Amino acid sequence: MALASAKRAVGLELDTGAARAVELSGTPQAAKLGAFASIELPDGAVEEGMVVHPEAVGEALKKLWDRGGFKSREVLLGVSNHGVMVRYATMPKVPAEKLDNVIRFQAQEHLPIPLNSAVLDYLVIGETATESGAALEVLLVAAQRDMLTGFIEALNAARLELIDIDVSTLALMRIIPPDTLSSTVAVVNVANGLSNILVASQGSPRLARLVSVKLKDISEVLGCSLRDLFTGAVAGSEMMPTVMGAWTKNLATEIRSSISYYQGQEGSADVSEIFLNGPGGRLGGLAADLEDMLGIPVRVLPPLKRYGRKAGGEAEDTLDYAISTGLARRGLEG
Predict the structure, then answer these.
(1) What is the spatial distance between Cα 52 and Cα 151, in angstroms, rounded to a whole number?
(2) How many CB atoms neighbour CB 203 within 10 A?
(3) Separation CA 132–CA 176 (nearest Å)
């Protein structure tokens, strides 16, 4: 869905236990950070990427807008749950005026749900050759309509205007450093709830996965809050090394599996670097441990740094806003 051009754009992410928003202004080539803020959500308000209690989320968003001083009430929303499907498909190359009809006609073959119960969008990411001739590589995105209801109700309760919805994993494309867009990289956003893995090559998304490795798992085993994971409150726990070791291995397994799946595709390239962000990126030693396990350089990527916010200071300032930053950047692109 095309967006009207705008001088300001706010990206909003709803994670388990937290809502995060970033406002950018200007142009995609010269974007500036206007505001950013996060707020805790009540327990159970958002679970597995789904809004369970819209009114509670709406009340929290009102406070978030006051806290952050956002100038715009128009938002781009990131959605990442099991009601969102991302599929890669090959479609016949046809004239531009016929493309939309062809893709929507053939999309059902690639999706496990009826199209009349979903919101469908797509992106042409390249061309390829098949036995039948030239073809287009298309990324299909489908979201179940009934799943979106809770999000819309929450935004309405907060008196926010929904401009568009994007898949949170795909929003990570827009935080990749420009000097690495020509290579093949992976971006891993480790969240309180479901985490995201994106593989991008030559500036295009090639694999987008949602994985069930989350910070909430650690906090539940240790019997602490998500906030305690970053304050040192549980650092002395005898269970911490064992719990973190097993959790990190699970995360490494998911990343390895994702990269292997991508590299099993024809014409794929080796992943040269992994960018780590999200709240999980603040866990001490995680990047180094993943690098040792995967044998690929892992770099912590603060998404706000390129817009004038340097790493350091409050820990949340550096890594938590990857998805909301990518969404805001998309809003500036029009």
Answers:
(1) 9
(2) 14
(3) 35
DSSP state of 212: S
pLDDT of 232: 72
Distance CA 166, CA 208 (A): 13
For the sheet with 195-201, list strands across it.
204-211, 195-201, 184-189, 273-277, 298-300
Q: Residues 281-334: pLDDT tens digits?
A: 999 899 999 999 999 999 999 999 888 765 444 444 579 999 999 999 999 987
What token pair was written down for 35? 């505001």
Report pLDDT digits (tens) over 143-165: 999 999 999 999 999 999 999 99
Name the residue type at position 188.
Answer: V
pLDDT at 77: 97
- Quick one: pLDDT at residue 111? 86
Closest CA to 33 of 305, 303, 307, 302: 307
| CA gap 63, 69 in Å, rounded | 10
Query: What's the gap between Cα 287 and its chain centre?
Result: 19
pLDDT band at 1 (very low <50, low <70, confident <90, very high): very low
Question: For the residues 129-147, what does the mean pLDDT come to?
Answer: 89
Alpha-carbon dihedral sign for residues 276, 281, 285, 290 = negative
SS3 state at 169: helix
Strands, sheet with 84-92, edge to edge from the N-terminal-most edge strand: 84-92, 133-144, 118-130
Give the position of tokens 């994702």: 258
Name residue 172's beta-bridge partners.
none
- pLDDT of 3-49, one tens digit each? 444 489 999 999 999 999 999 999 988 999 999 999 999 999 999 99
Structural domains of the chain, ranges and CATH numbers in brackets: 1-81+145-177+301-334 (3.30.420.40), 84-144 (3.30.1490.300), 178-300 (3.30.420.40)
